[in-house]
Amino acid sequence: MNCEILNGTQLRDRFRFFTTPATVDRGIFHNNSGYINVTLLLSTLRTTIETQYKNILIRENESFLDLDQSIPDVPNNFVRLRTNRGSLQAKRVVFVPGPYAKNISATLGFDLNMTMWELPNLYFRLNSPTYQAPTWFFAGEDQQTLFNGYPIEASDRPGFMKISPEFIQFPDDPLIYPKDRRGSATNFDYFTKQTQEWIAHYATYVDPHNYWYDNTSTCLATFVPDNGFIIDHLPSNVNYHSKIVMYAAGWGMKFAPVWAELLTYLVSDTEATSPYVKYLPNFGFNIEGRVIDSQTTTMSPFIPTTTTATPKGWGTTSIVLTSVSVAIVVILVAIFIVRKCKVIEKCAAKDPVGENTGLIRSP
């Protein structure tokens, strides 16, 4: 990857934003690293669909409720998704539900063993706007000293730098469902104090007492027990498993183009030709601990308002998602499907489902 190993002195000389005391003796630098402006990327992708891919239909503010189990799960048959606006029918379905993956799994008939960390958005003022810092990640001696940050030009708060704690106060007490999120005020003093102490030791060019935080939202980071990613057809004991693909768990935004390509291979049943085929077993539901063997409770899961999009042809492919960042993965999948099917009319067979593919995402 052409990474450069820097010692403590080199870190201090090159990146004066960091104080890096003697206890920090190593850094890894990648000169092609950066950050993704998610808002701009999503806007650009949507504009691309509206101007260049007229055969992709986006349906917003639509809630996925469940699957119509009356449709026989036989080859060449379709899947019917029931929503608050009626139903959608598709030969293939992609779910990218983000933090709602456990809710969705319960609706589909299995129990995903996924938990979440609720993380705040903290911004601290630079003592001077001339100080420069790269996109960075700091790993300390334990799980309570994980932080990351972004260049000042990436901040949506002029003069402030986003410094994010990447841990929770009680690792043994994570969230299970998004409805349980406690809000940014919960444990805020703890996160602030931990971050201020870190700044005092490692980033003295930042004012630890002049800060701002987003009190309207928190970030939900999702995990399976092995800290991996899931990109796979549903478990084999679930109805319609061969026709439904899901992406869940992990901090995957940085891998969005690759994950979208993997999903495209899976949903088109061409994964054997994928350049990533040897890695696919690492993304499976069948890895021990990722699925709970039997559900101990019966629940009626909360499903958020969503949106759907679809490339015409393919007898349709419905793509279901529930957050802004995963929307990017799904829109890329829709575009990749259209590109993969170079001649839509030849690739899509006539069927009773119609000509559209749906993408469902939250507003």
From TrEMBL:
The chain crosses the membrane at residues 314-338. Keywords: FAD, Flavoprotein, Membrane, Oxidoreductase, Transmembrane, Transmembrane helix. Its cofactor is FAD. GO terms for molecular function: flavin adenine dinucleotide binding; sarcosine oxidase activity. It comes from the Eukaryota. Pfam families: DAO. The keyword Oxidoreductase applies. Gene3D superfamilies: D-Amino Acid Oxidase, subunit A, domain 2 (3.30.9.10), FAD/NAD(P)-binding domain (3.50.50.60). Residues 4-266 form the FAD dependent oxidoreductase domain. Belongs to the MSOX/MTOX family. This is FAD dependent oxidoreductase domain-containing protein. It comes from Adineta steineri. The lineage of its organism: Eukaryota, Metazoa, Spiralia, Gnathifera, Rotifera.
